[in-house]
Design goal:
Layout lengths: L2 H4 L37 E12 L1 E3 L5 E3 L7 E3 H6 L4 H13 L7 E23 L4 E6 L2 E14 L1 H13 L1 H12 L1 H8 L8 E6 L3 E10 L3 E10 L22 E12 L3 E12 L2 E6 L12 E7 L3 E11 L4 E12 L3 E3 L5 H6 L6 E13 L1 H5 L7 E14 L1 E2 L3 E8 L2
Antiparallel strand pairs: 1-5, 1-21, 2-3, 2-20, 4-5, 5-6, 5-7, 6-9, 7-8, 9-10, 10-11, 11-12, 12-15, 13-14, 14-17, 15-16, 16-18, 18-19, 19-21
Length: 417
């Protein structure tokens, strides 16, 4: 299984007054180390993976580390405050204040603030079986639990504070009402445009199911080559166009992936692996909000558009050593690159569809370290009652573009029958 497919969850960057909708296609740290090993014919292999991740930072388009809620921190113009008022009387009061103090509607009334932290736990039952001595088939069904803590606020500029002070002098009740509206500027704009407000949330949902196979194409005295294929089904919770802070558990479309894996064996204990793969994301249609500009992607305009998520290229290398008593140590490096998404529609200016593709290209380099116990050989020697494996893997992104900067811990238990 591919690391992208097995961890079918989304922990994307949040943006308000320039919103980003997180996609299930986002790259993330690997959850497996590749190898060419296949199951013997008619041997079944149930596995259970537990994945843990905390996310509070992301790597932006320039590769710099940013808080996950960084895009919530946006300047707010007086024109935004005026547009958010409920009636013309309130709008005219604001315009009168600006005119009296010689302020312009393009001046800053303040800035929105936001903090977002995310915790994810994904349980992945996997069932594999040896079809022949060279072909293994498997299916993985991720079940995602995500907790998102989000808090938004507003910091008034000197002009914004002066307005509250002036209003309080004449009408304290209206001043308090205006202050509350400013403090909730993020959600007031969202709701005015038809979005759901930003709140802390908890999501429990199945992810995208993956069905795949591995074929041992060549086996020599010291080298093995395997070919892998996988189909990712859109069974997860797809992105919601009405949420600026979205937590889908899938990207809502079909993926077709293939990979080539080469192992070199140094005796019975030491193994090195080199692998490369390609995932094609099949074109489909989805509801999207059409951005107004690069600075403000929040929009009341929604359309069912043609979508082609960017294909993904992967590669990497690893090494593992298995001791006679069953302990296995591993380390590895992985590279992933996702190309830019493409969107097309016919209701609005073509430039607005191109804005949907902005910052959808992604890249990640990650390092991994693993430790496990492999009891298969000891079982064959009748030193254990059951053949089983217990594995742990730590993955850490070390460089990337437009991806979450999150360490990932995977714990796995496997049996053989």
């Amino acid at each position: 299984m591919s690391s992208r497919g097995t961890l079918a969850l989304v922990l994307g960057a949040v943006a308000v007054f320039g919103a980003d909708s997180a996609l299930g296609a986002d790259l993330r740290a690997p959850v497996d180390l590749e190898n060419t090993m296949v199951l013997p014919a008619r041997v079944s292999n149930p596995r259970f993976k537990m994945l843990y991740m905390n996310v509070d930072e992301r790597l932006g388009g320039d590769g710099l580390v940013l808080p996950l809620g960084n895009r919530l921190n946006k300047p707010v113009k007086w024109s935004d405050i005026i547009a958010a008022q409920d009636d013309e009387t309130a709008k005219n009061t604001l315009r009168g204040f600006l005119a009296a103090h010689k302020h312009g509607e393009s001046d800053a009334a303040g800035s929105t603030t936001g903090v977002v932290n995310t915790y994810a736990n994904v349980k992945v039952p996997v069932f594999a079986m040896g079809i022949t001595g060279r072909l293994t088939a498997a299916v993985a069904v991720p079940v995602t639990h995500v907790e998102v803590n989000a808090d938004t606020g507003f910091t008034r500029s000197a002009q914004g504070q002066a307005f509250i002070n002036a209003l309080a002098a004449s009408d304290p009740v209206k001043a308090k009402e205006a202050e509350l509206k400013m403090n909730d500027a993020v959600n007031r704009k969202l709701m005015r445009l038809g979005y759901k407000p930003i709140t802390s949330m908890r999501v429990d949902h199945i992810g995208d199911v993956i069905m795949g196979g591995k074929y041992l194409a060549w086996k020599g005295s010291h080298d093995e080559i395997a070919v892998k294929g996988a189909v990712t089904l859109p069974t997860g919770k797809a992105p919601d166009a009405d949420r600026a802070l979205d937590v889908p558990t899938g990207d809502g479309q079909l993926d077709l992936g293939t990979a080539l894996v080469w192992d070199h064996l140094f005796g019975r204990h030491f193994r090195t692996t080199v692998h490369g793969g390609y995932t094609m994301q099949v074109a489909d249609r989805i509801d999207k909000r059409l951005p107004v500009s690069h600075e403000d992607s929040l929009s009341a305009d929604k359309e069912n558009v043609a979508r082609k998520l960017g294909d993904i290229v992967t590669g990497g290398a690893s090494a593992s050593y298995l001791f006679d008593f069953g302990l296995q140590l591993s380390c590895g490096y992985a590279y992933q690159q996702k190309f830019e998404d493409q969107y097309n529609g016919g209701k609005y200016d073509p430039n607005r569809y191109r804005l949907l593709s902005f910052d959808t290209n992604q890249r990640m380099q990650a390092v991994m370290g693993g430790i496990g116990f492999n009891g298969v050989e000891l079982y064959k020697k009748k030193k254990l009652p059951l053949p089983f494996q217990v594995n742990g893997l730590y993955s850490r992104p070390v460089e990337g573009v437009n991806v979450a900067k999150a360490e990932l811990v995977t714990v796995e238990v496997a049996m053989f029958f």
